[in-house]
Write a structure and sequence with these properties.
Elements: H1 4-12, H2 18-37, H3 44-83, H4 97-107, H5 111-123, H6 128-145, H7 149-162, H8 170-186, H9 192-209, H10 213-227, H11 230-245, H12 249-257, H13 272-282, H14 288-298, H15 304-312, H16 314-327, H17 331-340, H18 343-355
């Protein structure tokens, strides 16, 4: 017995032209009305009802045909875009169609979004093999963060570019960063999406901050919890980082009171993370008034509240970062596996498998 997919292929097969697709569908039912017309009087009404159904199916077929052509055209345009970036020896984009289809069905994501993500990575100078792997990792980010494939790709691209991760390490690093983001999100009162957005904004400063990815993610998490916005947290953290590394005269004096060194050009000699750690050692012993005074001297007025949030939660930062180092491995992949095993994910997967029937 034919399965559902093969039946659909029989009904909707063709070469993605509206007229032919619609015509084929309508034709499947056109004979039913003819047969019903010849039935004796008690069944005459059935003929009329079937003719009405025939018209309705024809209209639906037309809509489906239009969508089929649109999807196919978009897919062809996506492949053409990817072809622009493929180098000699990587072949044509069409030969990767099966991989695109498999990812579309597995993740319940539009295949055209997958092609676009792959093209984006290839345009960023990653080879096609790496680009396909990064596309899959971005889809994991999209599931963990409950965001679109496009949003996940952009977020991961910002982190990778900001941290200047080398091409031969980007796949391994992207997986690890996803695990850390997911683990810290699960350990906090915020979520993967917000923390990832915050980290993407501070990414250009991570390598020079003296902080590990786990430590910076933990800082972003406590700030995001309080502000309820990853973008605000990342933006504020980027400003604070700059202000502590090149402090004002008042800030330089305050830093010296914590035992930190500032040279004659007003540049601190310790890294950003070392500065916060040194301040964090003394912070719990300060009165509320003293904390407020130091915050006002160390950073600009707009960042005072954010700085205090970080320092008031410095102990939590340490705990989250330490646990992420030891326990985050496979956190994201397990989250994705759970999400993809739900009935909702199964429906999306089935829906995308039907979509692929209209794309050649």
């Amino acid at each position: 017995m034919a399965d559902l997919q093969s039946i659909i292929k029989i009904i909707f097969s063709g070469d993605d032209q509206v007229s032919q697709t619609a015509g084929n569908i309508s034709k499947q039912l056109s004979g039913i009305g003819d047969i019903a017309t010849g039935i004796a009087t008690p069944f005459a009404d059935l003929a009329n009802k079937i003719l009405i159904l025939d018209a309705a199916v024809s209209a639906v077929a037309l809509v489906i045909g239009v969508k089929a052509v649109q999807a196919s055209n978009e897919f062809s345009a996506g492949l053409a875009d990817l072809n622009r970036f493929l180098s000699e020896g990587e072949g044509s984009a069409q030969q990767y169609k099966q991989q695109f289809d498999d990812l579309s069905v597995k993740y319940g994501t539009n295949v055209n979004d997958i092609v676009k993500s792959t093209a984006d990575w290839r345009a960023a100078n990653f080879d096609i093999k790496t680009s396909l792997e990064l596309t899959k990792i971005a889809l994991d980010y999209s599931i963990a963060g409950q965001i679109t494939a496009g949003e996940a790709t952009e977020t991961l691209k910002k982190i990778v570019a900001g941290m200047a991760i080398e091409n031969d390490k980007v796949v391994e690093s992207s997986k690890r960063m996803g695990d850390v983001l997911n683990f810290v999100a699960d350990s906090s009162k915020t979520n993967f999406k917000e923390i990832a957005e915050g980290v993407s904004l501070i990414a250009p400063s991570i390598n020079t901050s003296g902080a590990s990815f786990e430590q910076m993610t933990a800082i972003v998490s406590v700030l995001t919890e309080a502000l309820q916005s990853g973008s605000q947290a990342g933006t504020a953290l980027a400003v604070i980082t700059g202000q502590l590394k090149s402090p004002s005269k008042a800030a330089a004096e305050a830093l010296k009171e914590f035992g930190l060194e500032v040279d004659k050009n007003n540049i601190t000699q310790q890294s950003f993370y070392q500065i916060l750690s040194k301040i964090g050692e003394k912070w719990p012993t300060l009165t509320d008034a003293e904390k407020a005074n130091y915050a006002q001297r160390l950073v600009s007025a707009e960042q005072v509240n954010k700085f205090q949030i970080i320092m008031d939660n410095w102990g939590t930062v340490g705990v989250r970062a330490t646990k992420a180092v030891s326990d985050a491995t496979l956190s994201m992949s397990k989250e994705v596996e759970r999400a993809l095993n739900t009935s909702g994910a199964a429906f999306k997967s089935f829906e995308k498998s039907l979509d692929l029937l209209f794309i050649t």
